[in-house]
Design a protein that fits this description.
heterotrimer, A alpha+beta (262), B alpha+beta (155), C alpha+beta (783), A: alpha+beta, 5-stranded antiparallel beta sheet, 14 strands, 25% strand, C: alpha+beta, 28 strands, 28% helix
């Protein structure tokens, strides 16, 4: 790792007060530190968010699940409240990375990083979640912009994410056999705004599969989406899977998710 | 340099470190506890697994400064005197190791696994050990070791 | 009489205590006073000329001790790395072994090739300095696939190797095979790819070099499977120092699988540079470097044809293989696709004639050398996929086709047409045993159940054979080996009756400290706890050829037995003297020496004490009780067996689930069944990895390694693998005193063919390894 300075502020304003161009927020560090270790990135200063109490905690109401940005995946996975409100979200968290990663990685870090193969972005998009920052509230729809790119400004910090509770939802992932990130992950939700289908891993950024949503709108059943194709142009193609195979997996995973939705 | 203080295997330790010092480097180089190993550089092999406040974590994917105030347990901190931790004993009894390099991380992960799943199925053990790679054993005897430990620990 | 903790007992391992408590001493755990850190600047290009290297800024950087290039090593008279096995071309000429400098001179030939060695006070400082080195490269078009490299017009990797050819070699009787094919009732043909693998022992390679200016002695701590061989090569060919001034120590080593046999550029450069900087230097590979520089395995492309008569008997076998050597010829690379491969193409069968030709070539890739099994997995893969395919062509059960063609148990010694003499075995027995273990006959019913769920079920077997216990020195010498392949041992009694065994074998996971101690416990009755095994240090151990080719017990263990025999011989003399009997009347069993027909007896402990405190002692006998032995085997050993895999494939996704694995292996006598089973588990796991998950991939155009980390190179995890049902059958090996055959590689040899046969059985069509989900899905679509 290149050398850098390190701060661990205890208040939100201290954290966002003097963020330089080459400074980075450090949440769980499960993506950032590997990048730094390989010298693929260089920062002037790491601002460790772990001491800011305002970023922690899970709360669940009748209509909404709220997860603080610094909440680790393991806590989401094992939260009885979340499991009862949105079991698909707890399931998703319980399959992110591996046990050690789940003990350190956070929802805030994951959504701010917007790795194209990360799991959480699919949940946010399908559940029509809102990302709350220190400045504003951003709908998931506009939060995830492109490959590793979000709507966040440099000194903007994810504080929490709120998820409306759907009637039914499920996430099914086909992991990359090597990295275990999502080769294709499909989050299906049926909520107030109708069915939503979000796909991660397959493209440069999480996206909604509109044709599948339309099909589910008239018939919320796996058979309704298993035959719905996804255009291969724009999908990832690499040594692990061609765009064609990824497109096929989207249909299979979507159908399985719909069948599993609860 | 930043001062960092933590408890490692029950002992308070404090040192001045560069912020870019990884926890595993602090453990191995500063504390000379070399049972925690480094087997990859992409945070996947799990050979560096330790417990941070009782939970498994990859010490190669944590800065030493992030462990400020934390309770750290490494492989060296498991046995009490000559008495092995039941997981250590189970690995020996069931031939759950060959070259031994992945073993400290594997044991630390397995203890954490039993904390979450006191009586795990074979499938659960296999799934929960996703973050630890072994090249020698084919995992058969590791799974057997963890199962045996769960029985011995009253899971 | 069976001895507690003796031969045949699943004794728990001695070495485990230190490993499970974090007290193992792997190389990176060792530090020296005044130690510096080495780091290699590596080529980012697959093939390029180095026009210039500017070190000025880097040398001035903070913490830099010195920086070296290929020119410095050449100026110092340091030689390059050599290949220790000469192969003859078809026309009798020698293979081509181009220069292999430790640090590149003028050109870089694969991504990761060493360009400069930076020595600094800390690793981070060395890395910082590396970024300041300016290398002006002229990129050249590279070639990575062996088929392309051997084709006309390919980029030329070495000027010394026209057409990129290393050798064009043959074995067997071409005319006889041609004649057999003329008379064939049926011919099965296949093209098969044996995918390139990265060995990935979990401990990365590492070296710690130091030079003592007072004695002129170098000490190299290194992650080696054979420290004496490393010393020999460093002395005789690299000319670091004569052997008496060079100590090589391999401490606890975290797995090898072949990849730590070889002498590499990094270890060599580290020990050389330690004298230049007059300080200890430690270099430890990170995993990314390991992917770029640890010798890869396999990488064959093969066309095979097998001829059968009208009764399905094999008439002849014809095999043509192209083998990728990578950018340079690694230490034993040339032997792998020749004498470790084609000599096993006979499999377990009565094959009247075989003809094999192997063309080996250079590419702009990491060098390829022995990896678990080394040549023998490639041979078994060809033979056993051919047998399965032939059975499908002939519409007979594949296990029955094998049974019909097996060499029969009464046929030993059996001379094959490819220069091997099989010494023992019972192939029908291992086949019957494995079939019973997996309920082979019930497969069709299980397949129907899977089909009802929309799943494809398959079963496949592989009857493998390997030549282990490497190797009779005269035999390998006649085939081009540059070394003898005996092993040494010393069995040293201490005055109070405990024993230290010194072995030239090296344990890096195999459990020698336990198995070898069991030999002495059994033979000499010394309590298991009182026997220690010392290995891995050239100043402690007499000499050693090291551990590979499943040789440690058959060769190294036999040397221990031979040394113990000498101990017994001497002890009998002492016992006769002490008990005032004739030496001819002394009987020995498990460390107890008795006078025949009397109740007089002495234990080996009492005799050892008398030998070291020789107050009452035979006048013509030397005091002390320690004996050396060198053991050169009479023949290879021939472990063989049958593995059967059963799989279920989800045709919607192409995911293969391994449901059952049955392995029946004939390893001859077994010393520690627990350790043997563990070796099979690990070998099978690596074989499954090859068949299902692993594969080194280069970008064909740029020559960049695309599988350079665990993000892209798929290592088997616990949830990728099933439990393994393994058993052994035991026809004792007649060519060594222990009757053992070797078990370390069997799993990796048998598994790829067994699993691919199961997968292709389910799919009803042939595919190549690795059977990735997409590949299987595509095949299932058109099934």
């Amino acid at each position: 790792m290149y050398s850098f300075d390190y701060e661990r502020p205890s208040g939100m304003s201290d954290a966002t007060g003097s963020v330089g161009e080459d400074d980075k927020f450090l949440a769980g560090g499960q993506s950032l530190l590997p990048t730094l270790k390989l010298r693929l990135a260089q920062v002037d200063k790491l601002i460790d968010l772990s001491a800011i109490d305002d970023l922690k905690g899970i709360s669940v109401t009748d209509s909404e699940v709220t997860i603080g940005a610094m909440t680790i995946h393991a806590d989401v996975a094992t939260s009885a409240d979340i499991r009862s409100a949105i079991p698909a979200l707890a399931d998703l968290a319980s399959n992110i990375g591996d046990a050690q990663v789940r003990n350190r990685g956070t929802i805030g870090g994951s959504v701010a990083n917007n790795d194209p193969a990360a799991d959480y972005p699919a949940a946010l998009l399908a559940l029509n979640a809102t990302v709350h920052t220190n400045n504003r509230s951003i709908p998931a729809e506009t939060f995830f912009v492109d490959l590793f790119e979000t709507a966040l400004e440099e000194d903007e910090l994810v504080v929490k994410v709120t998820f409306p509770i759907p009637q039914k939802a499920a996430y099914v992932k086909f992991p990359n056999p090597a990295s275990r990130f999502a080769l294709v992950g499909v989050f299906v939700a049926n909520g107030a705004g109708g069915p939503r289908v979000a796909v991660t891993g397959a493209g440069p950024c999480v996206f909604r599969q509109g044709d599948m949503e339309a099909a589910l709108d008239s018939n919320f059943a796996g058979s309704a989406v298993s035959g719905v194709k996804t255009e291969t142009s724009g999908l990832n193609s690499d040594i692990h899977a061609s765009a064609e195979y990824r497109a096929h997996l989207i249909s299979v995973m979507a159908a399985r998710a719909v069948n599993a939705a609860s | 340099m930043t001062t960092v203080s933590m408890t490692v295997n029950g002992k308070s330790v404090s040192a001045n470190v560069e912020p870019n010092t990884l926890l595993v480097q602090f453990i191995r180089d500063n504390l000379r506890l070399t049972g925690t190993h480094v087997g990859c550089d992409t945070s996947q092999c799990g050979a560096c697994t330790v417990h941070v406040n009782g939970n498994s974590a990859k010490s190669c994917t944590m800065l030493a400064v992030q462990a400020e105030g934390a309770e750290i347990t490494t492989i060296e901190g498991l046995a009490s005197g000559d008495e092995l931790h039941p997981m250590q004993a189970a690995f020996k009894e069931n031939h759950g190791l060959q070259c031994g390099f992945c073993t400290p991380g594997m044991i630390m992960s397995s203890i954490d696994l039993l904390k979450r799943h006191p009586n795990p199925s074979e499938e659960t053990i296999r799934t929960e050990l996703e973050g630890n790679i072994c090249r020698c054993t084919g995992y058969h005897n590791i799974v057997k070791s963890v199962k045996a430990a769960s029985e011995n620990m009253g899971g | 009489m069976s001895v507690e903790n003796g031969i045949g007992a699943s004794v728990r391992r001695k070495e485990d205590q230190r490993f499970i408590t974090g007290n193992g001493k792997y190389l990176d755990d060792i530090n020296k006073y005044g130690q510096t850190y080495g780091y290699f600047l590596r080529s980012p290009h697959a093939f390029a000329k180095i026009k210039s290297i500017d070190l000025d800024a880097a040398k001035a950087a903070s913490g830099v001790v010195d920086i070296f290039t290929g020119a410095d090593m050449a100026a110092d008279g340091v030689g390059g790395l050599i290949c220790g096995w000469g192969i003859k071309n078809k026309d009798g000429s020698d293979h081509i072994a181009p220069p292999h400098p430790c640090l590149a001179v003028d050109t870089v030939k694969h991504v990761g090739d060493q360009v400069a060695f930076i020595v600094a006070e800390s690793l981070e400082q060395a890395k910082d300095a590396a970024e300041l080195i300016e290398v002006d490269y002229e990129e050249l078009q590279s070639v990575t696939s062996i088929q392309k490299a051997l084709a006309n017009g390919a980029p030329q990797v070495h000027v010394e190797a026209p057409g990129n050819q290393c050798y064009d070699w043959e074995l067997g009787d071409k005319a006889a095979v041609d004649a057999a094919f003329v008379n064939a009732a049926h011919i099965t043909k296949m093209d098969l790819v044996n995918n390139r693998l990265s060995p990935n022992p979990m401990e990365p390679r590492s070296a710690l070099g130091e030079y003592d200016a007072g004695t002129g002695e170098y000490t190299l701590h290194t992650t080696s499977q054979n420290p004496h061989v490393a010393r020999l090569l460093l002395s005789a060919f690299v000319a670091i120092a004569p052997e008496n001034k060079l100590r090589v120590i391999a401490p606890d080593v975290g797995g090898g699988f072949g990849s730590k046999i070889f002498l590499y550029a990094e270890e060599t450069t580290t020990i050389w540079a330690s004298k230049k900087v007059r300080r200890p230097i430690k270099w430890t590979s990170d995993r990314s470097e390991a992917f770029l520089t640890d010798a890869h395995g396999r990488d064959h492309a093969t066309h095979a044809e097998m001829a059968f008569d009208a009764d399905n008997n094999i008439l002849g076998f014809r095999v043509s293989t192209k083998a990728n050597m990578g950018a340079y010829l690694s230490t034993f690379a040339s032997a792998v696709p020749t004498y470790l491969y084609a000599t096993l193409l006979n499999g377990q069968y009565k094959m009247p004639c075989i003809y094999a030709e192997v063309q080996a070539g250079f590419t702009n890739t990491t060098p390829v050398d022995a990896y678990r099994g080394a040549g023998r997995p490639e041979a078994t893969y060809v033979v056993e996929r051919m047998m399965e395919r032939a059975a499908r062509d002939l519409n007979v059960d594949p296990t029955e086709l094998r049974m019909q063609n097996f060499i029969q148990p009464d046929a030993y010694p059996y001379e094959t047409p490819v220069i091997m003499t099989y010494d023992s075995g019972d192939y029908p027995l291992t086949m019957r045993t494995a079939k019973g273990m997996i309920d082979y006959d019930g497969f069709e019913a299980r397949k129907a159940k899977s089909a009802a769920k929309g799943m494809l079920r398959g079963i496949g077997s592989a009857a493998f054979i390997e030549a282990c216990g490497i190797a009779p020195s005269a035999a390998v010498g006649s085939l081009g080996a540059g070394v003898g392949l005996w092993e040494s041992a010393e069995v040293r009694f201490n005055p109070t009756g405990s024993v230290t065994i010194f072995t030239g074998s090296h344990s890096h996971g195999q459990g020698h400290e336990t198995t070898f101690a069991q030999l002495i416990t059994d033979q000499l009755g010394v309590p298991f706890e009182s026997v220690e095994v010392v290995h891995g240090d050239t100043t402690k151990v007499p000499f050693g050829m090291g551990t590979y080719g499943s040789r440690s017990l058959a060769v190294g263990g036999s040397a221990i037995v031979k040394a113990a025999d000498k101990i017994i011989e001497k002890a009998k003399k002492i016992a006769a003297h002490l008990m005032e009997a004739s030496e001819d009347d002394i009987e020995h069993a498990h460390g107890v020496f008795s006078v025949a027909g009397t109740d007089k007896q002495l234990t080996i402990g009492e005799i050892a004490f008398a030998a070291y405190v020789p107050h009452n002692y035979p006048a013509d006998l030397e005091p002390g009780l320690a004996e050396n032995a060198f053991y050169d085997p009479l023949n290879f050993t021939f472990p063989a067996g049958t593995h059967i895999a059963e799989v279920e494939i989800d045709p919607e996704t192409g995911v293969v689930e391994i449901l059952e694995w049955a392995a029946a292996d004939d390893f001859g006598n077994v010393i520690n069944p627990m350790i043997v089973e563990g070796q099979v588990h690990g070998g099978v796991a690596q074989g499954i990895g090859q068949a299902l998950l692993e594969g080194v991939i280069y970008d064909e155009d740029s020559g960049q390694l695309l599988t350079g980390s665990y993000m892209d190179y798929c290592m088997p995890r616990a949830d990728d693998l099933p439990n393994f049902n393994v058993t052994t059958t035991n026809t004792p090996c007649p060519s060594n005193p222990l009757g053992v055959k070797g078990c370390g590689e069997a799993g990796a040899i048998a598994a790829p063919a067994a699993l691919m046969n199961a997968i292709t059985n389910a799919l009803g069509k042939e595919i190549d390894m690795p059977a990735t989900p997409e590949k299987v899905w595509r095949a299932a679509q058109n099934a």
